[in-house]
Amino acid sequence: MSYIQADKQQPVSKYHCVKDRNSKPSLNHPCFNNKSHNKFGRIHLPVSYDCNIQCRFCVRSRNDYETRPGVTRKILSPIQSLGIIDRALRLCPEITVVGIAGPGDTLANDAALDTFFLIHQKYPQLIKCLSTNGLNLPDYIDRLHNAGVQTITVTINAVDPEIISKIVRHILWDKKKISGVAMGKILIGRQLTGVKLAAQLGMTIKVNTVLIPGINDSHIEEIAFTAKELGVSIYNIIPLIPQGEFKNTNPPDCNDLKKAKALATQYIDVFEHCKHCRADACGIPGVNDFSSQLYQEKMETFSHG
Questions:
Q1: pLDDT at 93 (0 to 100)
Q2: How far is CA 168 from CA 80, 130, 162, 219, in A?
């Protein structure tokens, strides 16, 4: 599937996008519904350490002090995750969502899929949620659906290969590292195909975009429009955390975020309450965090390498 390339000489109205079409956010999901962010809880299970792409802003870490994506105290096995959920529900009965968001990519191996199958059997009432870069999403989508996954977040930082090549250093594809525009075409094509397949299965989809001044800030409209056309329900614009190759890049300020969200809102509902959650977060976003209590008991660590 090719990306949608906007014609900069044409007015915005050329998109002909009906904002309310395909709007189906999960009502009890605090990361998909602006009205639920301070009412319902979620737990992130850190079972996915491997990653199949290298974003230039990403630094994965194991620690107990940073509050950002890509960070966890430890890596769990799928079986260990069930015990963690038991404890989490005792600490925070308001939890409605079990999510897997790293600290690597959830579809770089089968750990997340295996975990969701176990969770679906024991906790069918909980919303199962997956976050991914989307490179392997087309290959996993049917199995994820069968494992009870109802909501999916795909990080799409550009729908133009030239732009994504400035954000992603390389992908691991067909046992090779691929970079540049060729990498961008593969990654974007796989992301958009995966999103379309998820929408066809009736899943609720959110797209995340890391806003990077000078690189993709003028590209937000295209991403928002493309996402909506494919059946995405809600869009989340996340300010860059300066680290990795972007450690010297100034993050977007409040005006930058406001402008980006205003552009996106023309086409799609925009989530307003993202908290840059860790891969082992637990509790009601913005209200409480039980992750330190959750992992107080000594556990055997598990790593995929």
A1: 86
A2: 32, 21, 10, 16
Residue 88: name the closest of 303, 280, 302 by CA: 280
What's the token pair of residue 87?
């404890």
Is the pLDDT at 73 greater than 80, yes or no? Answer: no
Is-contact 134 156, C-beta < 8 A?
Answer: yes
Amino acid identity for residue 178 in this structure? I
Q: Which tokens is 269 given?
A: 């509902």
SS3 168: strand
Between the alpha carbon of residue 118 and those of residues 41, 124, 146, 289, the distances in Å are 20, 10, 12, 25
* pLDDT score at 94: 84
SS3 state at 42: strand
Question: Is-contact 42 98, C-beta < 8 A?
Answer: yes
Q: How many CA atoms lie within 13 A of 72 on its CB side?
A: 23
pLDDT of residue 59: 80
Residue of 147, 65, 61 lying closest to 104 (CA atoms): 61
pLDDT at 52: 95
> Which residues on neighbouring strands pair with residue 55, listed in sequence order?
168
Structural domains in the chain, sorted by start: 20-294 (3.20.20.70)
Contacts of 57 (CB under 8 A, 6+ apart): 167, 210, 212, 240, 241, 242, 243, 244, 245, 246
Q: In what order do the strands lie in the sheet with 168-173?
A: 53-55, 168-173, 176-178
User: How many CB atoms lie under 10 A from the CB of residue 8?
Assistant: 7
CA angle 200, 112, 155 (to 5 degrees): 55
Element (H or E) spanning 226, and its range?
Answer: helix 220-230
- Tell if the pTM clears 0.85, that is, is over it: no
83 three-class SS = helix
Residue 28 has a pLDDT of 61
pLDDT bracket for residue 239 (50, 70, 90): very high
